[in-house]
Amino acid sequence: xxxxxxxxxxxxxxxxxxxxxxxxxxxxxxxxxxxxxxxxxxxxxxxxxxxxxxxxxxxxxxxxxxxxxxxxxxxxxxxxxxxxxxxxxxxxxxxxxxxxxxxxxxxxxxxxxxxxxxxxxxxxxxxxxxxxxxxxxxxxxxxxxxxxxxxxxxxxxxxxxxxxxxxxxxxxxxxxxxxxxxxxxxxxxxxxxxxxxxxxxxxxxxxxxxxxxxxxxxxxxxxxxxxxxxxxxxxxxxxxxxxxxxxxxxxxxxxxxxxxxxxxxxxxxxxxxxxxxxxxxxxxxxxxxxxxxxxxxxxxxxxxxxxxxxxxxxxxxxxxxxxxxxxx
Length: 328
Description:
- The structure is a single chain.
- It is built from 15 helices and 13 strands.
- By secondary structure, it is an alpha/beta fold.
- The chain has a 5-stranded parallel beta sheet with strand order 6-5-4-7-8.
- Helix 8 (163-174) packs antiparallel against helix 9 (177-197).
- InterPro entries: ABC_transptr_periplasmic_BD, Bact_iron-sidero_bind.
- Residues 69-328 form the Fe/B12 periplasmic-binding domain.
């Protein structure tokens, strides 16, 4: 039996290795045995069951076989299921998120069942779905963990600082370690290639705005530290933030944006319709219409979902930002 702590709880690396070696044998990379090549995920999964997971809440959960009917309680886990090609059948807020989020476009029309709120899911609906694994969220589902595990084995995830950690932890639960490594490598390569394409724009500044209310025309700035995939010169696209640009999210005013006067505005909206309505309204506002980015046609639409930080979001953001900059 394979026992995995992985990245689901914070433990020293040395302790992690002891757990892995003691319960699963010596890892392939340390034993002289060649690891299966990337892409042979089915072979790895066949060899790795049953497995015991110690989740982010400290629960020890034994899974007898690779899951084939997964429910995720928090909607953000859908993007990781998609990246890993996992057998997802239900999710919190599935209907609205799949309809609105471009990152989840491949799930449209696939019959993913909406189980209600991520904080208070419909337990009867989950029971009807007959899942063989439920993935919960430590921040939202701690109070209903006992109810969820009566339906199916339940693993609570959460507390990750990077998308790589979260992808790896998710993969360890569902037996998709090779797929995760492959997707991570692909995403890192996409970022490196995109960073190279944008290198000639290194003197240009980029402000990332999110429309928080289409009706009230309110916005917020998405912080440079929290959007490392955009602004990091090593792990992201290497975009340059304007002077006085915040590291963390904060409310934005037209006047405050005018002080920064960025060369490009990355405008995140729920939909292209919401984006068009906002920019049409903005064209009638003297402060907005006089921004350098607006006058030069350098306002780039990004679907709201791309700031979620998942590898799927990073992929979509990189593609859209590169296209928006180079084509303009």
